[in-house]
Amino acid sequence: MADEAYKEFKEEQKVGTVLPVTSGTVLHFRRRRREMQDYSRFKATVESAMESAVEDLKEEIKAQHERTRETVQSSNRDVLSAIKASPVESLKLMSEFGSLFLLFALAIRFTVGIELVNTAFALFMLVAFAVYWSMARLKEWTRRQHHQDTQA
């Protein structure tokens, strides 16, 4: 009976005439109104829950951003103080980082086929970074030897 009333309602909407009022159509429209009210309450509840969740996420993101920013700034200070204290250490760090990047680029080149850096340049720079790193290690070793000789 409710299905028939709904079909009649839809047909009347298309035609634009008024439905005859029967007990079935009245019950159907009351039920629809109650369902719409329940949906409205549900929608308001969900919206408020979503808004509070979004606010919580915003606060957490801000807090995480501040923590990350403090960590990055402290590590930047540590790296800069190490570079200022010892140019040899900075040369070693630069050589190690450059070598890792070039090895990563070559691994991507040979596994996936994407050329991040020219292969010949990468191989040349790997050799150059190895020379720089060994020069820094030699300088550090000679400095230690000199320090031990003056202490003894």
Which features characterize this protein?
about 150 residues, mainly alpha, about 90% helix
Overall description:
The protein is 89% helix and 0% strand. The chain is mainly α and 152 residues long. The chain folds into 2 domains: 1-85; 86-152. It has helices at 2-15, 23-85, 87-111, 119-151. The mean pLDDT is 82. The N and C termini lie far apart (107 Å).
Count of alpha/pi helices: 4
Helix share, percent: over 70%
Q: How far is the N terminus from the C terminus?
A: 107 Å
Biggest sheet statistics:
none
What's the Cα radius of gyration?
37 Å
Uncertain residue segments = none
Q: Given the helix and strand composition, which structural class is it?
A: mainly alpha
- Strand percentage lies at under 5%
Question: What is the mean pLDDT?
Answer: 82
Structural domain tally: 2
Element-level helix/strand string: HHHH
Oligomerization status of the protein chains:
single chain
Total strands: the figure is: 0
Specify the overall morphology.
elongated
In short:
The protein is mainly alpha-helical and 152 residues long. The chain contains 4 helices and no strands. Helix 2 crosses helix 3 and helix 3 (87-111) packs antiparallel against helix 4 (119-151).
